[in-house]
Amino acid sequence: MFRGRDCLSLMDYSRVEIETILATATDLKQKWRRREPHEYLRGRTVAVLFEKPSTRTRISFQAAIAHLGAQSFYMRPDELQLARGEPVKDTARVIDRYCDALVMRTFGQDRIEEFAKYMEKPVINALTDLTHPCQGLADLLTITEHKAKLDGVKVCYAGDVWNVCHSLIVAASIFGFTLHVARPKGYEPNDRIMKFATDRAKATGAQIVITDDLKQAVKEADVLYANTWHSMGGPEKEKEKRLKDFAPYQLNSEVARGAKPDYIFMHCLPGYRGEEMTEEIVEGPHSVVWDQAENRMHTEKAVLTLTMI
Ligand code: CP
Ligand code: NVA
How far is CA 136 from CA 39, 213, 219, 268, 279, in A? Predict the structure, then answer.
């Protein structure tokens, strides 16, 4: 079902396939907690190429690869001949001859798609401007663990309308849960994402609402999800304007009063206290951000195992 497949976006998967990834992640999480060996990828090699900074994704992938008994090679783009103009298609075919998979963080989705086109081995998206599927999988696992289900859950997302937001929109459309994206007008989701989500939502009954009304988005929410207002790449160049535009969209304890009393607070991190969230909400009793960060590793292990075995 998964062998040899790329993981470029959650749009690549059906609901049943994502449920299989989450069940595998839960099994691997239990094994890791019990310190049971799970070296299913012994002798394999994984290339790890990051063209943007990362803390969670890079460390969780490299830890996951080590726990699975495989070897990772971390590469900075400036250390490769890519930096001197070697074409992507040549780099991709060479990596394909040495390694059993590529984990890649980059800017355009077209760039990772080009790597995938020229590689036989699985290419796993560790974040592009368009999507962050590994974050989306960890988010689904975290919500399931804390809310016991995805059906009927209302998620309020407040933050940049970018990769993480897009992966949540796709996830909501596949699983049929309610997602309100609160953002200032003018910051709109990508057309390709919305087209996929609108089509899929017709079958699943998902309600996906893009709104400038934070209060309405928070109302009776089970999950409050914050994200930076100035993502890496293009958005960070507009930081000053975004700090003003997004200022009314901060998630804090006052705003959270409109949510369900047992709401959980999520954030993909890195988070900026005093901007999209406050210290008291991220450090408060509703926050599950460290569980969410840990789940990155378990879901990534599931993707690596399922695609590489
Ligand atoms: N959430 C996430 O992807 O974090 P990093 O940028 O630190 O990898
Ligand atoms: N939207 C953020 C997520 C970081 C994990 C960014 O792209 O910078």
Answer: 25, 24, 23, 9, 24
Find the domain containing 74 and state its range. Answer: 10-131+294-308
Kindly report the pTM of this predicted structure.
0.98
- Ligand approaching nearest to the C-alpha of 226: 2
- Atom 7, ligand 2: residue with shortest CA distance: 231
Res 1 pLDDT > 90:
no
| 300 & 250 share domain | no
> What residues are in contact with ligand 1 under a 6 Å CB criterion?
54-57, 127, 135, 268-270
The DSSP output letter for 7 is B
Looking at the structure, tell me whether residues 202 and 101 fall in a common domain. Answer: no
CA distance linking residue 306 with residue 309, whole number of Å: 6
pLDDT tens for 224-245 read 999 999 999 989 999 999 999 9
Report the residue among 268, 272, 276, 289 best suited for mutation to probe ligand 2: largest number of ligand atoms under 8 A from its CB: 268
